[in-house]
Amino acid sequence: MTFRPLGERGAYPDWLRALRGRSGAYAIREASFANDAVVYIGESHTGNLYDTITRHFQRKPFWELRFTQQHDPGTVYERSACKVAVACASPSRALEIQDAWIRRFKPRDNVQTTLPAEKLGVLRGAFRRCARS
Known about the structure:
single chain, four-stranded antiparallel sheet, 5 helices, GIY-YIG endonuclease, 17% strand, alpha+beta, disordered C terminus
């Protein structure tokens, strides 16, 4: 895994912008947390990897200006304090990579499950079928 910086402000780096239209999994490492430990792992299986990653680095006014009702973008981090690692993959592999990374790194901000990997896979399959309906 290679973790790359996002820059302090302005346009995101070329490597991150190149993820538009791609699916995959990502890991966020925060410099201020326990020796640069991974704090969050996520995925996009809908070709929105760039948007899915960058939403974690938008400040509150960004969301307030775009939505008239309460909207929760999820966990938000200080962009300059973080680095991100990415694995581009097919939509079905993105979920598998995310689940494997969560089990491996046990990130602070992900909900941890005690389900065995095979049962989690069954739930993921049901989720995929519902999403296609």
